[in-house]
Write a structure and sequence with these properties.
Length: about 525
Amino acid sequence: MRRTFDVIVLGSGISGLTAAIILREKGLNVVVVTKEKEIAETNTNRAQGGIIAKKNGDSFADLRDDILKAGGGYNRIDAVELLAEKGPGFVFDFLIDKIGVDFSKTAGGELDYTEEAAHSTRRVLHYEDRTGDKIERKLIAYCQKIGVEILTEFTAVDLITNEHHSDDIQELYEEREVMGVYALNNASGEVFTFFSHHVILATGGIGNLYQHTTNLPSATGDGLSMAYRAGAEIINAEFVQFHPTSFFHKDIKRFLISESLRGEGARLVNSSGEEFMINYAPNLKDLAPRDVVSRAIYEEMGKVGAEYMLLEIAPFYQGSEPLKKRFSKIHETCLKGGIDISKEAIPIVPAAHYFCGGVKVDLKGRSSLKNLYAIGEVSCTGVHGANRLASTSLLEGLLWAKFTADEITEKERKINKNRFAKIPDWQEPEHIEDFDPLLLVQDWKAIQMTMWNYAGIIRTQKGLMRAKADLEYYSHRIFKFYKTARLDKTIIELRNAVINASIIVNAALRNTKSSGCHFIK
Ligand code: SIN
């Protein structure tokens, strides 16, 4: 099946849906493609803490400085300034006034601002601890209202480029450009050829490459890997941010325990009940930047060989709403694991949370490849530098979606359809071999352990060298297998994961200096 669109958006989180809405309202033929059954199955949906948006009582300079400080001087300064200047206002204009997102309010009916680590003021809007879920659902409803086409259960396999795929030899001598996407229909197993004049990657992060993560299982960095194979520039890949607090429970998959708990007073304690952040960050203590807090927890765990540390909220809570309402999702989830956060401390471990690197883009979301854009976590705008400040990611995704959609509509250019005609359909391998799904499970576990142990919170050159060698071995095996396999979502994700793991490890080996969330011992 062959179809042509003006714009293909891969991914249905805050950035993908926002870009699609703006493009659709400008009259473009846009499609959103997601590999999931549910449109809302995104990392956006899991975001708890909130989104920065304060009109009064905050300033451009304070926000800029907080982001730069957390980012360890690795940030792109004009990108940070753009976000600090335009971001908060756009939350009001677009999310609140247009899309109708209602954030939590105080008893007096004012917007309730929460605090998170390394922020110099309370500037984070939230909806209880379900901010992402609230935003995602409102965006989906708006997309449906204006008729944005959304294809679920289509897994992107590869970007189509003139140089890699055209049957016309002359294309080899032209500038490389992206012309669409090969995408697998998960249900039928058919690979569709989707052409478009522009492709926007909004595919999210890579958390699932690690043994412990706050991300959803399909956060495998598909867009990153596709862009890499197509030849786009990738930067800052060594900067993988670990969230200090995810729920530790033997029967429940790691679950984010929002930083806003510490913003509302919660404190970290070790197995003897002693507060320990004072020993690692005497001034900011529990509200020190994430990289500092994650390493402190990791070291405390190492000292006594503990599997987890504890977070106490009940005795210290300072929020205006009742604790069970303010943190309704966390309360509900912990209770399933037998922990009542209004009475007991929460067992926590750090977990891979956010990828600060990605496909290098400019202030308009343009990658180094013609017609290819990237927004949200898959992109690297330079805003986050070496370590992201809490609650900047939804904002960055939202804002760069706008910049990218504006750029596409302003400079609308079309690829001649005769050039699309020279692109062949997807070729299946001649000999397809059946595979044992257990082998895939084993490969996944091996990648996740390798990344957790050698490319995690505290890294060493030796460990990274070991990771590189192990990943080369896994890659060899996975690529060989990929060439003869009948394509399905799992195999595509595994191939992407091993490529991305190598991108991260190679970047970490190249950068021998510790900075932000890349910490070399
Ligand atoms: C959190 O709620 O702690 C996560 C917020 C973020 O990662 O920005």
